[in-house]
Design goal:
By secondary structure, the chain is of the alpha+beta class. It contains 3 helices and 7 strands; from the N terminus they run βαβββββαβα. It has one domain (about 5-130). The radius of gyration is 14 Å and the shape is globular.
Length: about 130
Amino acid sequence: MKEIRIIPMSKNEETFNGMTIEEVQEKFFKDILINECENKYYFSGLKGINIKYEDILLFQYDNHIIASAIVIDYDKRNRCIILKEDSVKTFDSIDKIELKSFIPSFKKFCQMKLKYPTDTIEYDSLLKRVGY
C-alpha cells in the first residue's frame, strides 16, 4: 500500500542555511535537487526508514509542507531516495491547519519522519493540492 510520508528539513542544515520557504523551493527543489543531485534526495535521518515505490513524500520546512515528490527507489547504501523524474512539485505552502484537513490524525510538525497510509487520509484531495 502506498503511503504519504512527511520528511522534515531543518533551517540549520548547511544546504539551507536559514533560507526562507520560497528560497528553498526555488533554489533547492527547482534547481539543486533536479540538476545537481539528479533527483536523488540525500537525507542523514533515513536510517531505519522503509520507503517504498510510489510513496508520496511531503517535504516539511519551517512548519509548512513546501514540496512533494514521488519515490521510485531507496538506495540504502548511499542513503538517498531516488525520485521520479518530473515529480518534484512546489506550491503555496501548507500549514498545520490545512494539512489536518487532509490528514485528520496529523497532530503537529516535528523533526520525526511521519507516515500515513492512504486509506486513513483524504488522499485524492491531498494529491490535487500538492500538484498531482
